[in-house]
Structures are given as structure tokens and as C-alpha cells.
Amino acid sequence: MKPKEKELLSLLYQNQNRFLTGRELAQALHISERTVRSYIRRMEPVITENGGEILAKQGNGYRLLLRRPVQFAVLAGTPGTETTRKTAQTPDSAQERRRYLMQRLLLNGETLQAEETAERLYVSTSTLKKELYQLRGMLDEYGLVFDSGPAGISIHGDETSKRALIMDYFFRSSTFNSIQEYMDHSGYFDDIPTEQLLRMVLDESRQFGIRLSDIMVQNVLLHLALSVKRMQAGLRPEHAVLPPAFEQSSEYQASSAIFRRLSGMTGGEYPAEEVCYLALHLSGKGSWATRQPAQGEHLEQEVKTVLSQLAEDDVMQLDEDPQLVSSLLEHLRPMVVRLMRGLPQKNPLTQDILRDQPDLMKVIRKYFGAMPCLRRYDIDDDEWAYLALHIMAALERQKEKRKLQVLVVCATGYGSSQLLKSRLMKHFSDSLHIVTETGYYEMSDDILQGIDLIISSVNIGPVIFGVPFIHVSVFLGEEDVQNIQRFIDQEKAGPEKKEPAAARPASKSQKEIFDCYFSEEDFRVYKGHPERDQVLSDLVETLACYEKDSFADHMREQIRLRSQMGSLVFSDTIAVPHPAVPLSKVARLALALIPEGMYWNESHPAIRFVFLMSPSYVENRNLPKVTGAIVSLMEEPVLQEQILQEQSFDVFGRILGSLIETA
Q1: Which tens digits make up the pLDDT trace of 519-528?
Q2: In terms of CATH, what superfamily is 403-493?
Q3: Which of 61, 443, 584, 638 is deepest in the core (most CB within 10 A)?
Q4: What is the pLDDT of residues 272-304, one digit of tens each?
Q5: b (16+ CB within 10 A) / e for 484-511
Q6: Total-model pTM
Q7: Which CATH fold topology does 501-658 show?
Q8: Where are the domains of the chain?
Q9: Is the C-alpha dihedral spanning 625, 626, 628, 633 positive or negative?
Q10: Which residue(s) pair with 408 in the sheet?
Q11: Which CATH class is domain 3-77?
């Protein structure tokens, strides 16, 4: 389970005597209500296996019911059911694995052994190959290729192209992950050309063979920007007394080259002390640092202890931000060295931060000042203000996570997705957080986890079932903006309380929408336990009578392609197979009822409803309303039982029709 899923399980376990609404859970976990529902769907198989059940009641929320309390106590006591060999730093999703691979192959320029890398990621070699395949399209756009020779896997191509991809992938990312993006939004660095500084750091560190992680690059960028601010404020660092050998190090040479370029850009000369301090910062991961005495093996644990204490005292909830941990470590390592050598560093933003964030500064002095590695030193506000910048960036990231989580899909590759992303951020930066961008055929269950909304320049209609979708132009026209804003407003308003569907008959407009997509000829009831492939074949043939002769074969192939992109099962009892791309001239649905249950796969051994959906390549005007009704049916076990008991098309039409939203 992911950390947030563990928290969700803990909340339900501690409140077994009552229902918790989706809103209560979302507020407690700082996520959206849609993400709560997504997490609960993913957790249900584990909970069921361990003797529990989640009761979902419309208007009331969720409640944990324990069938086998003793067995479940083991799960609740140790909710991390993954293999214990994994660490908190192990990439846990496809997106994280791809970033890990790009970090090592592209940013570090390493050559990787497939089996060793798969073992480190705790995945199979076939999964690793799949992740590399997904990255290949992005490399193609920059004229880069994977080389899988005897020495291992590496990225080959022009160095200029590599640096362009590094900038786009790591530092122009749509996620609010970077210190650079915080700098660009904070107001403290409005006069600093962060993009140009970033290029300098990347160019010179790679020129001198210094391997920096993306987090380290961001920290060096912050350090360099503060050097510019110090010069503007007329501040000069303390004289740095360093070993003579250090001036011959690659870190010192890279720092000198960066400041030569910076002087040419800004028209001012920087003192030698700035070169020394930046070199010291670079050496936090460089060769010179490895020849120095260790700064303490427990620094990472000390940082995590501080963040845990802040969370426990309900000051700020940053204990599950691995990027903050990495960022603080990259800053604290050279900071401790400076403190040991008596080299204080002036901070040109100290007075601004004291003015704007006085309470935060008090918190940092109190909690970070108690760290064993720092409490022996007399630390001034200049140093605490440096730490404050990292904390403020983490708090901004936390705000982003409370926004609607968006996946951007484009047909024509990475460049067009970046264009669409930038236009979305221009209009909706306060409401949307773009998790990532992808091509349509790269979509999968992994990439859809936690997604609240898909915004796509590909008209995929309802084919990515269960996640709301808005089709837009890559240039994002006015009508597109209005449609997105309407969705945001509806999400903020929250779901309306409705009377139980069984208490009201389908209205005339609901029946009209239902009749557009369903007919009694496409309604089948199976006895016993039929084979999945036979049921799918029957339903395909049922819909084929409305289409061309080649339709059935194309539909089977498209269903197969769609199943490779992610599951076609959306609850324990309901499957909704559909093609990867629309094939029908007129959209239709066929339904198979299997009252005794049908084996779909190991995770879903008793599917009782199979909706075969065939969207139109012409128009799907009310199809999203029908798919919404199917989603509602998933959450209504009583209505499902009524349909299965009656086995009547009229009863099915009355019940599903009543769930169609017509507003």
C-alpha cells in the first residue's frame, strides 16, 4: 500500500463504530474525494483477504466492518503489506520507475544492467523492458536512442540533444516538484533568470564530469541565485579557508566556469569566496567530498525525526515528502561542513523571510535546532532562512496536491503535450495540478492512479472508463476553458445528496437517453458459469449486426489492445470491456447478466454484469451520462441484486435509467 492508503486504512480502523464521509477522509489526508474513492477501490481486495469489508453507503460515507478481527489486526498493525525489502526510496509506480531510469541513464549518464536494475526496482525484466519502451518515444523526439549492447543499457546521441531533454524532462516538468518552480512563483527571485542559471549548472557540471541528481541540481540553482542576490545587496561571504588540493578538484573548476559565465551575463565580478562556496556545495556529491571525513551516517534519520516530530505535534504534515528529505540533506551536508570550519554564509533574503514568515522561522529554530548535528553550533538567522526556503517550497508542493490531479493526453507527442500543459497552467494554475503528460497508447492503470481528470487533445470519449474526461484543442480555445471551469466548479460544489435511485422511476428524458444506447435484442442472460471469451464473443456479434462485416474482428482486436492499457473490470461484479478507439458509426451497449458469476481473472472471480461498450467515431453526445449511471450502479449492490433477481430488460432499463444524470 502507498503511504496515503495506509493512513486511510488507519482512519477507517480507528473509527469502526461510525461512517466517515468522503469529504472527512479527503480533508484528513489532504487529497480529493475522488482520490479517496480510487484508493478505497484499490484497497478492497487486500482488506477482504485479511478479514475486513468496507461498507459504502450513499450520503453516509465509508465504514470498516471486521469479519475476522484478529487476522485484520495484523494488517492494521503492519499496514505495509509490500515486501519488506523495499525502502521508502524505492520507486513504487510506473511514473516513478521511469523517472528513476531517466535519472540514471540520462542525467547521470550511466550504463545499466537489466537484471540488476530490475532487481533494484523489485520488478521483472519484462516490466523493465516495458518501462524503457514507454520512454523510447520521448527519446525519438530528441534524436536519442537506447543502446542495449553487451555492456548494458545506455542512452546514445548528441550531447546537446541530451541536455535539451534533461531541461524538458526534469526541469520544465508539469509537476510542481522543483525548487526552481517555487523560486519562479515565490516573489523572492523575480529578477533572477533561473532558466539561464539552470543551463549553466547543467552545462558545466556535465563538462567536468560531476554527476548531480535532479534534487542536487535544484539546490545548486538556489545557491547560485542567492549568490546573485548577495551581489545585488552588496554582501560578501566570509573568507573561505580550504585545503589547497580543493582548488584542483573538478568541483572547483566547474564552479569557476559557472561564475565566469555568470559574470558575463550580469556584468559584475563575483568574489572568489562565492566560487569557493559553490564548489563546496557541488562537492556534496562530488569526488572531493568522498575524500573528506564523513559528516555523520545519521543525518538522514535526524531529518526524518524532525519532520515526524513536526507532524506529530500537528505543526505541519511534511513527513511523507521524500523530495523535501532529499533537498534538506543536499543542503545540510555542506552546511554542516561550513559550520565545522566556521564559515557563516550571508543570506540576502533573511529579512524578507523574517518579515513574511516569522512563525515559520520560529518553528525551524525550535525543531531543526534540536538536531544532534546542529545543536552544538551557534546558528544565526541567515542559516535558518536557507532551511526556510526548502520548507516553503515543500508547503507549496503540498498545496498543489490538494488541487485536482490532471493527466494530459496528446496524440502528437511530448512537444504538443508541453504546449497544452503551458496553456492549461496559464488559465488554471490555482485549480489544477498536472501530474504528468502522456500519449494515448502509453496510458495504463499505473498512470491513472490518483487521477481526478483527463484533459486530452485526443477524442477518447468514454473509453478510459471511470475517470472524467474533457476533450480539448491543443491550442485550448475559449469553449475548452469554459468546459474545464465548469468541471472545476462542480467538483468544488461536491456531489449533491440524492434520494435512493430505487425510490424514483426513470423520467422521460432519462428513458430517452437509455433507449438511445440499449435495446432488448442486445440484452443477454447466462445460466451457470460461462467462459469469459465466449460471453465477449457473443456480445461482439450482437453489436456487429449494426456495423460493417469487418467490425467483429476489429472490435476483438481493439478490446485486446485496451486490456493491455489497463483493467476492464471496475468493481467486484461489473466489467466494462470496450475498444481502444471508437469503431461504431452509432454508439451502442450490449449487456450480459451472469447471476451465478463468471470467472474473469484471479482478482475478479465472480463478475455478474458485462457491459460491452462501443463508442461512436461520429458522436457520443450522452454516452458519458450512461457510463456515469454504470459507475453509480457499481456503488448500489441492492439495485444490482434486483436486476439479477428479475433478469428482465424492463427492470434493468427502469433501474439504470433512474441513475442517468440529465442536468
Answers
A1: 999 999 999 9
A2: Response regulator (3.40.50.2300)
A3: 443
A4: 888 888 887 787 543 333 334 444 457 888 998
A5: beebbeebeeeeeeeeebeeeebeeebb
A6: 0.49
A7: Mannitol-specific EII; Chain A (3.40.930)
A8: 3-77, 94-175+188-282, 403-493, 501-658
A9: positive
A10: 437, 455
A11: mainly alpha
